[in-house]
Structures are given as structure tokens and as C-alpha cells.
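User: quick one
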Amino acid sequence: MRRTYALVQVGLALMDDASARHWGYELSKRSGVRSPVMYRILQNMLDEGWLSDGWEEQARAGRAKRPPRRYYELTDAGKIELGALIAEARRDARFRTLVAPQIAGIST
Amino acid sequence: MGAVIFHVISWPTLGCALLVWGFAPGAVLRLIVLLYPRDHPRRRELIGELHAHPRIERPFWVAEQLETALFGGLYPRIARHLHRLTASSSQPQTTEVSAASLASSPQNVYRHLQAGFAESNAQRCVEYEDNRIFHPGDAFIDVLRWLWGGIEGGPVTVAAISGESLACTLLADHFAAVNAILAEQEPPAAPMTIDEMITGLGVAGLGRYVGPAEYQRICAMIREDVPAMTGYTAEGKLAHLIVPRQEPPAGTSDASVPVTYSGKPREDQDDVETWLGQVTITEPGDSRRTFTHYPEHPDDPDHRALTWGYTGSGPLATGALILNDALGFGTPGTIDHAGVMPGGVPSPMLVAFTEYIVAKFPDQRGRASWQLSRRAVLEWVSKWRAENDANGEARPET
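Assistant: Done. Structure below.
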């Protein structure tokens, strides 16, 4: 997958909690990527096998009186690939502004 | 120019914009998602996501989705349509393959199959996996290759059911679909057998793809499972819902015993339109037996659900239940027990009983109840036998 600014942003948001279920709206907010771009990236990740997806339980959605939402989860392959992608991004000058705060956050 | 600008910024225009984007983003979103193919999961996903957004953000988010739908939905849809047009113009028309060529060349069977099979697969896979896997127009062998690739630990995991059972379901669908098509041809073509299907898979290259040992295992699985999952035998003939053609055992068919058959919709259903029925057989002493399927089959209960009010497999199942009981063959616990003869077709009597009696039962929800006495059934049987021979041919009037 071509490494883009948006891909790294979405990757960071996913890896922020690698074992959690990720929902479209929250993911868009956390990554700061517009939803059309984000959905394209998520679809590519699904095609690559980096993500698996599923639907919210009907009962839970029913209680909230809204349609069920789709969620995304990182697969083991996805965790490895995204981990590598973020590591490369840290070494890449183009993404310095994006990943620098993360590095600083880890070191403090 | 000034007039145009005036109209654009006029109060009615602003009012319309507020109405559409301020008050009805849900309606607009529902129109936007129509750009996606019918089976695309993003249709449901976007509608589900709308409610996650704060109301103030919804109009802007909905506007963004137009871009998502144009590039993610409309573009692939057009591309797929163009691909289909190209494919159909460059390939021979496959739905008009003659019976002779079907029988002589197994590969033709699979070519013949591709359109219908791929389409039904696409729908079924959408049902099972909620998304993305097959598309109408996919070649059969590509679907199968992909499928076995998935089973072998390829890129896609099958979440709802195992890949192997999904493969069997697809092959079973295919087997039943092809035989249904062949049976409708004029004159009816010889059915496709399981052996032919396996030969076709070999010709199509499955053995080279999965290796000889796995190929043997798959063939054995197909031979065993596919007929069990369909209403067809390994010879491609209808195997279920058969009224026995031998005479009933003496003394078991007694019109004087006051037995009644009554039907009503099952109570555990929410869907008003597509209800399923239950039939209760009440015998002297208020002994009751209630059936929701016939014949009961642990592996395949859904294909034998009881319905009425039209002609089809559901009414045929209801008719078989009533006739088998009235004629003294009992109500078999499984398809292998008394009352069913594997390898045959529905008897002419059952077909007539279904058409003239069961199809006439009321089928509107709330009024779909009926009752029938065994005596009435046996009177109908006597009359039918007097007027028809065992093959359903009308006897000449004397």
C-alpha cells in the first residue's frame, strides 16, 4: 500500500489501541482524516487483510434506536504491517511532523 | 447574471437548503448510498454512522459522503457494468446451451452455470459475510479457487461459517440451480449428476490447483455432502417431498377414524409478509402432533418449511405431510424413514393435491388458518384415483 500522509494518520489512530474495535466516526476524529479518504484507506486495508470487520450487535443498536454500526479490528497481519509502516514513517522526513509527537509521547 | 445570483441567494433557495441539509440529512444520505451496488456494505455502514455524528455535523458529513459514494460506489459500479458488457459481447451466449452439449461436455455445464451461479453466490455470500466477496460475473473456477484459497489461510477469513461448509453450500446451490434449469428445458434435459459435476471440476483445473490428495478429499466431500444439502439425489433428480408410490399398508388408512389436520402461521415470527406455517394432526383422545417442517431433516430443515396458499415447495411439503399421514404411511422422522422414496419425483397425486387443495388454503396473515378432516382427504384421493392412473394421466371416460 502506498505510504501517504493519510494512511499514516489512520494507521496511528488504529495502532493507538491495536486490540480495540474501531468505529468510523471515532476513527475519523482521532486520525483527522476526512471520511471519504478514510473509507478508501479502510477498504484497502480490508482487501490487504490488515483489518477485519463486523457489525454491532443488533440488540445493542436496537436499545439505542439506531441502525447497527460497522466496526473494524486490526488483524495480526495488520498489526505487524502497520507497526512497520509507522516505524518507517518515523524515519521518513515527510512524516516527521506527524509522528514526532508520538515519539515524544513515548519517551516522556 | 444579477437575477441568477439573486435566485441562488434568495430566501426560497436558502429555505430549501436548510430543509434538505438541516432537517433531512438522513433522507439525503439514503439517496446517496444508492450509488453503491446493492450488496455493498457501505450502504448500511454510512446509514449506521450517521447516528454517531452530532446533529450539527451531520449535514457536512452527509455532503462528504457524496464524494465517498461517487468514487467508492458509482465508479466500481460503472466499471463492473462495462466489464459485463465486454464479457457478454466477447463470449458465446451461455444460457442457451443445448441439452446434448451439456451432457457431452462437462465444461459447458460450468460455462452455462457461471451467470446464475455467480449471481446466487454473490447474494449468498453477502448474506453470510455481509460484504465484498463475490460479484455477479465472477467465473466459477475463479470463485472456487478464491474460496479454496481462503480455506487454505489466504487473505480472507470466513466469519459466519467455515469456508468449507460455505463452499459446500455454494456447490449445493449450484447443483440444484443447474438441475432446476435443465428440468425446465423443453424437452427436459437429462439432469446433471454429482459425477458430472466432479468431472467438470477436474476439467476446469481444480485438481491442478489444489493438488491430487486435496482434490480427492474435495470430491469425496462433494459426493457425500452436496446431495444431502439439496433436494436432489446424486443422479440430479428431486429427492425430497415424495409421496410413496406403493400401496399403503392394509388397515392403516381408515377414513372412519376422526383425524383432523389443521394449519396456522407459526407464532414466533415477526415478519408479517413471509410467514411460515405449522400443521397439527389431531387424533382421537385429543392426541396432537405438530409439525413445522416435512419431512424433518436435521441437516436441512429450512428447505422443508410448511406453507400454503400458492404452489411451491412449501405447499408441496404441507401436501406431503397430509397425504402421507392420511394414506397410512405415517410421518417420517427423517427423510430416510417410511413414507419417502429417495430417487423419485413428487408423485402426480401429490402435485395435484398441492395444486387443488393446499394452494387454495388462505394465506393472508391473520386469516391463514384451515382445517381438513382425514375423511375429506381420503375422499379426494379416491376421486383422484378414479379419474387418473398412477402416472397422473386422466383415465378415458367409459
